[in-house]
Amino acid sequence: MTIRIDRRKFLMGSSALVAAGAAGVMPSWAQAASLRLTFWGGQARADRTYAVTDLYTAAKGTAIEGEFLAWNDYWPKLATQTAGGNAPDIIQMDYRYIVEYAKRNAIAPLDEFVGGVLDLSTFDQDQLDGGKVDGKLYGISLGANSVAMLVNTTAFEEAGVTPPTNDWTFDTLMEIGEAFKAANIRGGMKAIGDGSYSEPMLQNWLRQRGKDLYTADGKLAFDEADAIEWYTMWNKLRDAGVCVSAEDQAIDTGPLETTMLVLGKSAMLQSNSNQLVAFQTLVQDKLGMVGFPRVAAGVGGGHYRKPSMFFSVGGSSANKEAAADFLNFFISDPEAAKVLGVERGIPCLPSTREVVAPTLDEQSQVALNFVANLGDLLGALPPPPPASAGEIDASLIRTIGQEVGFGAKTPEEGARDLIAGANDILSRA
């Protein structure tokens, strides 16, 4: 889905521009007449984003032409635009792709603007470091977040099942799933969506076991035996009716509206902490949040505070400094902060957090408290994934997970193809 907001193409009237200039608020460099912005997300994110672009237009006189798409549609279109030399000025970027786009010069380094239009003097250092590639700054983190399990607490109450806490394990998940199956609520709602081809859930599981998806030098950090164990575990959960069927999971094509949680097919869904706000707008039941299951009691370290997403400047943009100015406004303007809340994660500037905290609704407070209190679940931020990680996720982790789920491949066959295919992609990259 692509949505363009034509009304955001307007410019301030000449009298307003003169007044702004007379007040001394216009920058000394030439401001762009308009900028193009692209991002992934749903309508709730779009509403907040466009409210901020309106604030920016009113303050600076620069119109922002915005466009948003669902995650699965976003990356193919961005790749096409980039290849055609028609990339937007401002690009929402993900941690998994930032290395690839930086190394291909598809996004521009921002260091020359730091200390000028881009004030990062009090920015959280870990989030600043997360946006760097080879020592240069390519992305401004829009918030810190963590993977999280969204929980339909209303459904748990209806089923008479105690919701999980941060101490739960995969054994606890099996017990919860069996209890949901016995309760048989809402036409057979399952406890959880199928996480077998969720890259974040696989990574969390590996990190708890002292491994990871990738090494710092871009190699696979797990092996075939790990993958066999992973697929076998999810086959057991699927066969026991703990997670949704492969047929149901296939309905999930990317947009939040097609997820098992929103469709009412599961009471829990692996997601990210910043997405609680968006999911709650789509679900009437009350939602809560806990960490991913532990591989065993007392084992932690699988989670990390990740830059939820970045804003980057297009490498081919003719308005890089103006785009950097917009980035600065987006992360630091007090009124913008009130509009954005924590939908994209916990703000990375102390001043912004101070503005946001008193304005948060209940669900936003849940997200903030979750990220701030991960305890022993929290581990170190891994290095950025290799440039081909996106391809491995889309063409192998998701596809092979589906094939194993449908029974087209055994766990052993899926593991063999995952490791062989991933190593082949990494070697070609």
Provide the descriptors you would attach to this structure in a database record.
2 domains, D-Maltodextrin-Binding Protein, domain 2, 14 strands, 17 helices, alpha+beta, four-stranded mixed beta sheet, six-stranded mixed beta sheet, 429 residues, globular, 13% strand
Description:
The protein has helices at residues 14-22, 43-60, 71-83, 98-103, 125-130, 153-159, 170-183, 199-208, 224-239, 246-249, 276-282, 320-332, 334-340, 350-356, 362-372, 389-405, 411-428, and strands at 3-4, 34-40, 63-69, 90-93, 132-133, 136-137, 140-141, 144-145, 147-152, 190-192, 266-272, 287-290, 306-307, 310-313. By secondary structure, the chain is α+β, with helices and mostly antiparallel strands. The protein folds into 2 domains: 3-145 and 306-372, Periplasmic binding protein-like II (D-Maltodextrin-Binding Protein, domain 2); 147-300 and 388-428, Periplasmic binding protein-like II (D-Maltodextrin-Binding Protein, domain 2, 3-Layer(aba) Sandwich). The strands form 4 sheets. Strands 1-3-2-4-14-7 form a 6-stranded mixed β-sheet. Strands 10-11-9-12 form a 4-stranded mixed β-sheet. Helix 9 (224-239) packs across helix 17, helix 13 packs across helix 14 (350-356) and helix 16 (389-405) runs antiparallel to helix 17. The longest helix has 18 residues, at 43-60. The model is unreliable at 1-28 (pLDDT under 50).
